Protein 1
Amino acid sequence: MPLIHPTALVDAGARIADDVSIGAFSIVGGDVAIGPGTRIGPHVVVTGRTTIGARNRIFQFASVGDVPQDRKYGGEPTATVLGDDNVVREYVSIHAGTAQDRGTTTIGNGNLFLAYTHVAHDCVVGDHTTFSNNAQIAGHVTIGDFAVLGAYAGVHQFCRVGAHAMVAAGSIVLQDVPPFVTAAGYPAKPRGINSEGLRRRGFAAGDIAAIRRAYKALYRAKLPLEEAREAIAVEAKAVPALRLMDAFLDIPGRGIIR
């Protein structure tokens, strides 16, 4: 049986795995499903049509799955989905999707959301990302695998931050940040590649060198964007690691930071 504190309010309709723990004064709604090994701390609210996977840790005062902060929202049955092994620290807020977009806010596996971070409606967060304290993403944002958002970073709605990218503390992202790129400033501008992060994740020296060449083609060679994309696409045929950047640039989005 789940270990539910006697002061917690858990709706009878909630689907709770047998080994879930739910702390004091927490509230779990009737359309919530919580997977095995997940621990819900005290004073947490999990509501809406929310699915939480296995082995997640949600700390005190977090809010997961509540209605979106969007004037267009009219009570439609939208959803929030968290995968496995995520850590959601104090005062984090994660909101459900809207009918005007994909209808679901989706978070993958192994992500770390530090205190006061915010994931808005219809966002897609990949795997193993890090949101440092007070990092905030607006609605319809996509964050790629292993991306890092520094403290107080903000991402404008509909922007994308590519896999293995890093956004420096206090930066404001108004356009897309390609994979592997480090961005800083207001508005955020390219500041090189996330070489240290790539080394920590086991990227080969040859792959990092190829990523550095792609960055130079994109930002330092003074090529038109289309020519830079073509150069990266050619090298990506021989360097699989570059295919992430090639595929990212193939989607227009809001335009990349330049």
Protein 2
Amino acid sequence: MTRANEHAVAGLYAITPDEADTARLVHLVDAAMAGGARFVQYRNKTASPGLRVEQARALMRSCRHASVPLIVNDHPDIAAEVDADGIHLGQDDGDVAAARARFPKALLGVSCYNDIARALEAKRLGADYVAFGRFFPSVTKPGTIRATLALVAQAKREVGLPIVAIGGITLENAPSLLAGGVDALAVISALFGSADVRDTASRFAALFLRESKNEQR
């Protein structure tokens, strides 16, 4: 696995949709990376264990070719089997300290919803970044707790790790998150549900360039 701190967690963070067709999934992810996705998280809540391994392995090949880190959601065993670059843990996906010990060189992310205390604990246990959200109404996570820009500001002050925002993010609402201090945007539906994934990824990537120019003024 790649050493975690070789990759600054920033930019478009593409999270895969629940796609049963591995070839189509790889095609979609390749388009996202060609458009500027900086990270790919493999997440499939509906696939069988065998299909998850198949898809993770196929995505690992594509991501290595594109020099984009692949992060596996929920499944440390799959991350180990395909030699993924990282692992992402939700609230019920395992122990952060155990993951850090098992994957000392991997990028380790933790979902913190709207919980600063969880983010601080994740940092203490070795997380490389924390994810907050949902920030907007979400098709993928319709019932999850809302996070706010005030929470982002607090996390910037108190946690000091890169912040990934997730939940209902679109090209229209993303600028408010970037202006509020978010480092990376985790996007599923607005990216992979678009008519042109590469173009949409490129437009998301352009938002980061625009925000960077605004900060330099």
Protein 3
Amino acid sequence: MFPKATVLFGNHDLLIKRKAKTAGLSDQFLRNFGDILEAPKSWDFKLEVIKDNVKYTHGTTGNAIKVARDSRISTCQGHLHTQTFVEWSVSEKDAIFGLQVGCGLDRDKYAFEYAKPFNKKPIISCGIILERGTLPMVKLMPL
């Protein structure tokens, strides 16, 4: 369905690479991530991408508005399963936003078993950015 795509690595995707490095193994011993997923060769795997002055990243440090304020570039990210929002930061020079998307997983499945005792539950949502990076929106999935 998607012959061309840019796929962003998440913290769990990079776990194998971090473990290999800790063990002293070279990247040459690791299979290409696209090969593991049997993804089309035309898919591009990256840590982050900037398009229309918006940074797209999985995220690892802070939520989207914190990352946007620190770098002064609008940012769309995931990583935090229990948060979803659009928040703006305006200065004398610019107006930027942080778009935080929740997640796309079923909290009743085994992969999310570790979070069952947590008070906060995952938010199933999708981020949409239109008008060449100037119109951010969040849509919640009806549960």
Protein 4
Amino acid sequence: MNPDERVQAVYHGKVPDQVPLMLDLSHWYKKNMNVPFDLSGFTEVEQGLVDLHKQVGAVAYVEMGGFYSVHSEDPQVQIESTTADGVFSTRISTPVGTLHEERVFNSGSYSYGIRKHLLESTDDFQVVEFLMAQLQCRPKWELYEAWQNALGDLAYPYAQLPYSGSGYLAARNFGVEKTVYATLDEPERVHQLVDAVNACNLRILDAIIDGPFEVLFISDNYDSNVQPKDFFDAYVRDYYTEVAHRLHEKGKYLAIHVDGESRGILGWLAECGVDCADALTPSPMFAHTAAEMREDAGSDLILSGGIPATIFGPGATDTEFAECVKRWLDTRKESARLIMAAGDQVPIEAPLERILMLRELVDSHGRF
């Protein structure tokens, strides 16, 4: 089978000839190839990233830029993003108020840390709610098709929705601490904001759902340590269930980017009809082993991930790395709903030789 056919087989509930290998190499590529970047994302095919995927032999699935744009036709609504002197700034202006965010570039991590959140208090929520009611979506499938053509059988692009309402607050624009306090002090206010964001996202989904993708991706960066079951049930469960339902009616699939403590959440995702849990990181970074993740998830949820950043980087030996990969691949004996990937992005400090090892390990130990 070709690499992309292996991924497709897993999503279709079939058994591929071996576990598919998918990697997000975008961050590693930018840092190690000294590629300048801001947070606006790729607007065209990045040939160097294509060449890296071909060298590694891993399917590309995310971080290819946006396959649609959002805009408001109200001239009083303005969204402006700029990068200057290492600071990425976003300003949102509406008739009911203005919001401003700042993120600062860190050359060591090659990333942008949040210096000023977009939202300072629940008083700012009305601006977001007004904005969400205004936004409209314009697909850009030409970019999707360009990546497919460039990557060939190493392409399996996921379309992506923005953060869900809960992720919009906790993972991106309000911060964990303020979000937790707001859910305790003003739960109705939080529900109103979450519902406004989710309603906007569902309109985006309706606008893109007939596009060429098979899998839709929500990058909520969920962590059950700070977003436990009562939070999930109150702010997340109904939304994920509705997105999964709409996709399944079209013969498509839903992947949720976890990228945090997954203890408990895998079962919750399966209950919502989610098809894949992405960016799964087992012990020693988080609580569960690969085998415990499979037990928690049941046999039908696709598990994508498997390698903690601490094991992928130079802090672990090649033997420790290989054993970690094998433990993940061993779970294929319990369920073929498995993808070999990093626990999020391939870390920038990972040696290229170790990344190249991964293809050999999957070929040797991941066959069915």
